């Protein structure tokens, strides 16, 4: 659990984490790069699963939703 997790009630943390996870899973497809003017990113399955586990466990509680959107793998 992250060091800031205690600041929010459990239900609010779940909603915050779900929003971040949804943004993270929203990636630009490479086939749409010419329409979106943004190159697609491919994240290996193992990295995706590790990142998802991190969202659910609170590892990224201090990261904003905007930082999770269209970024590829998490740091």
Give a summary of the structure in a few sentences.
Helix content is 49%, strand content 0%.
Features:
75 residues; mainly alpha; 4 helices; elongated
SSE layout and pairings?
Layout: H1 10-25, H2 33-36, H3 45-57, H4 65-68
The general outline is elongated
Biggest sheet features: none
Order of helices and strands: HHHH
| CA-atom Rg in angstroms | 14 Å
How much helical structure, as a percent, in the residues? 40-55%
Structural class: mainly alpha
Helical segment count? 4
Strand content: under 5%
Q: Kindly report how far apart the N and C termini lie.
A: 17 Å
How many distinct folded domains?
A: 1
Strands, total number = 0
Low confidence ranges: none
**Mean pLDDT across every amino acid position:** 83
Please give a structural write-up.
This protein has 75 residues and is mostly helical. The protein has one domain.
